[in-house]
Amino acid sequence: MAKVLILAEQRDGKLKKTSFELIQFCAKSGHETHVALLGDGVAGLANELGAQGAKVVHLAEAPELAMYTAEAYCKVLVELAKSLSPGFFFAAHTPTGREAMALVAQELEAGYASDCTSLQFQGDNLTARRPLYAGKAIAEVEFLGTGTRVLTVRANALGASAATAQTPQVQKLSVNLAGLKTKGLSVVKGATARPDVTEAAIVISGGRSLKSADGFKILEELADTVGAAVGASRAAVDAGFRPHRDQVGQTGKVVSPSLYIACGISGAIQHLAGMRTSKCIVAINTDPEAPIFQVADYGVVADLFQLVPALTQEFKKLKEH
Ligand SMILES: Cc1cc2nc3c(=O)[nH]c(=O)nc-3n(C[C@H](O)[C@H](O)[C@H](O)COP(=O)(O)OP(=O)(O)OC[C@H]3O[C@@H](n4cnc5c(N)ncnc54)[C@H](O)[C@@H]3O)c2cc1C
Fold first, then answer.
1. Whole-model pTM?
2. Digits of tens for pLDDT over the chain (321 positions)?
3. Residue 266 Cα to ligand 1 middle (Å)
4. Residue having the nearest C-alpha atom to atom 7 of ligand 1
5. How far, in Å, from the CA of 269 to the mean position of ligand 1?
6. Is 233 in the pocket of ligand 1 (CB under 6 A)?
7. How far is the CA of 157 from the centre of ligand 1 (A)?
8. Residue (of 222, 240, 221, 242) closest to 232 by Cα position
9. HSE on the CB side for 231, CA within 13 Å?
10. Residue 284 CA to chain centroid, in angstroms?
11. Whose CA is nearest to atom 8 of ligand 1?
12. 17 CA to middle of ligand 1, Å?
């Protein structure tokens, strides 16, 4: 079985769930699972990675890695990949993963498959599936030749479950980051404590029909009741009802939660591109002909301003019991 390397993403010393899924999947399929952990003062996270199935954690710590920058991450990851020569190098298809891994693949002159939604190992090779044309077609791809192959995988796509916990071997990398041309100064954070749409198991999204930023409060209340993230269509974002970080779709984020509830969203192809691989899709729309119903597992023809608060009340009652 090939050695695999996985980029573990962390922010502010907290690991991202999207990395756990990849570690579990690779460990369970019997691969020697190596994990790259980059940051400053993050050594304490190695055991958490072991608990997911990581065999070896390659730890790179430096002040320059405290915040993600493509240049510094790429430098460390390329050096590690060259010395380790893994058969596969994976990252989650997050903004960090897709930027860093494209650069890594280019530096390694390796084949690159991004935004994969399924992986099937065949000995030392694998077949991956990835959506094309905003999700209208699915391509099945495999790699030619030998050497490291680089992939990013959509969050929640693998449906992996816990692998056998390990006490990981921690290997410290000596990193030479002299001569970097970029430096991260600070991150301006949003004020929300809700999960990000790409990581949440439940996403509740709203469209133009919410009419205002205030209109989204009914979605927020439902989201807080069930522990969901709040997403939005581009029309809602363009109208200023939500920040761009909440946008789901071709020019927003791609999500694959267990449950996606689309409230007053018509289902334009560009929106579907960001959510059609969700495990279960519920659509609430007053128009029975809305295209969203074509991809929905459950459709409700109803006014969201009546249905959403009623749903929230029902969930609150259920939680009380
Ligand atoms: C290059 C490009 C990229 C794009 N990228 C994205 C993207 O990333 N994400 C994205 O979402 N869009 C994207 N779009 C825009 C996309 O084409 C649609 O315009 C957009 O998704 C529509 O948003 P909407 O469904 O909120 O609004 P609308 O299409 O106006 O739909 C509103 C829906 O709400 C329903 N409704 C109205 N009132 C109620 C009510 N009270 N209760 C229940 N239902 C109600 C209506 O029946 C309707 O179906 C992109 C477009 C282009 C050209």
1. 0.82
2. 789 999 999 988 999 988 899 999 999 999 999 999 999 999 999 999 999 999 999 999 999 999 999 999 999 999 999 999 999 999 999 989 999 999 999 999 999 999 999 999 988 889 999 998 877 899 999 999 889 999 999 988 887 777 788 899 999 999 889 999 999 888 877 767 788 898 899 999 999 999 999 999 999 999 999 999 999 999 999 999 999 999 999 999 999 999 999 999 999 999 999 999 999 999 999 999 999 999 999 999 999 999 999 999 999 999 888
3. 5
4. 249
5. 9
6. yes
7. 24
8. 242
9. 33
10. 25
11. 249
12. 29
Per CATH, is 3-172 categorized as 3.30.2040.10?
Answer: no
Cα separation of 283 and 120, whole Å? 31
Partners of 230 in the beta sheet? 204
Domain residue ranges in the chain: 3-172, 202-320
Dist. CA 270–CA 133, nearest whole Å: 10
DSSP-derived secondary structure for 179-224 = T-S---------S--SPPTTT-SEEEEE-GGG-STGGGHHHHHHHH
Per DSSP, 173 falls in state P
Domain 3-172 shares a fold with domain 202-320: yes
Tell how far the Cα of 304 is from the centroid of ligand 1, in angstroms.
15
- Give the integer Cα–Cα distance in Å for 314 and 318: 6
Ligand 1 touching residue 266 (CB < 6 A): yes
CB of residue 264 inside a 6 A radius of ligand 1: yes
Residues in the chain: 321
Amino acid symbol at 46: A
Which fold, 202-320? Rossmann fold (3.40.50)
- Ligand 1 atom with the smallest distance to the CA of 287 is 47
Atom of ligand 1 nearest to the CA of 233: 11
